[in-house]
Automatic annotation (TrEMBL):
Name the UniProt record assigns to this protein: DNA-binding response regulator
Domain of life of the organism encoding this protein: Bacteria
Gene Ontology molecular-function annotations: phosphorelay response regulator activity; transcription cis-regulatory region binding
Keyword terms: DNA-binding, Phosphoprotein, Transcription, Transcription regulation, Two-component regulatory system
Length: 225
């Protein structure tokens, strides 16, 4: 569940946002004071902050500026002040977006989704290599290395192994693997998973058959640390 911090001194608006966001499935915390809000933002982990500009204790610009020296938590500024200079000042001090009051809740939710999708894309682009024990799988070149030896993989072997390595310690059923790798192709039987796991084990060239991919009898397979 994504956690949202609302720093807003208008209690009616803050409570309305809390109600709407909880309805959408978010976890919500509220601060009515800039200094208290900054303390929460510094000491807790939130996925996004909705930050008013005009606040008691510490204004929104200063909250944003101080937070940015420590964290990159996404911030959407909410304010009745809608001049170009106000927007520029907020963005220059680290806000990710700026929404003038009054606003439609649908627009706020849409802007939040844009920020979350951007974060997901950035995280995905930064994860170029998967590792497990002495295995290293490069997601761009699709090459597997083990103790500096390169192991060539077919497309399906790569997809299967990368799915295992993205789900370390999670037991993956044969049906889950079929859905993910073969999209439930009607021409594919569940035992094809067993065949490809045997291929991978052979290529990993170890005396211990289950050193990397372990069988969970009657269920599926797991790569377990």
């Amino acid at each position: 569940m994504q956690k949202i911090l609302i720093i807003e001194d208008e209690e009616g608006l803050a409570e309305f946002l809390e109600l709407e966001l909880k309805y959408e499935g978010y976890s919500v915390d509220i601060s009515y004071d800039g200094r208290e809000g900054l303390d929460k933002a510094m000491n807790q982990d939130f996925h996004l902050i909705l930050l008013d500009l005009m606040l008691p204790g510490l204004n929104g610009i200063e909250v944003c500026r101080r937070l940015r020296t420590v964290k990159n938590t996404p911030i959407i500024m909410l304010t009745a002040k809608d001049s170009v200079m106000d927007r520029v000042m907020g963005l220059d001090n680290g806000a990710d977006d700026y929404l003038p009051k009054p606003f439609a809740i649908e627009e706020l939710l849409a802007r939040m989704r844009v920020i979350f999708k951007r974060q997901e894309r950035m995280a995905a682009s930064q994860t170029r290599t998967l590792t497990f024990k002495d295995l290293e799988l490069d997601l761009e070149s699709r090459l597997l290395t083990k103790e500096n030896d390169t192991i060539e993989l077919t497309n399906k072997e790569f997809e299967l192994l990368s799915f295992f390595m993205k789900n370390i310690n999670r037991v993956l059923t044969r049906d889950m693997l079929l859905e993910r790798i073969w999209s439930y192709d009607t021409a594919v039987e569940t035992n094809v998973i067993d065949v490809y796991v045997r291929h991978l084990r052979t290529k990993l060239n170890t005396d211990e058959k289950e050193a990397y991919i372990q069988t969970v009898r009657g269920v599926g397979y797991v790569m377990r640390e």
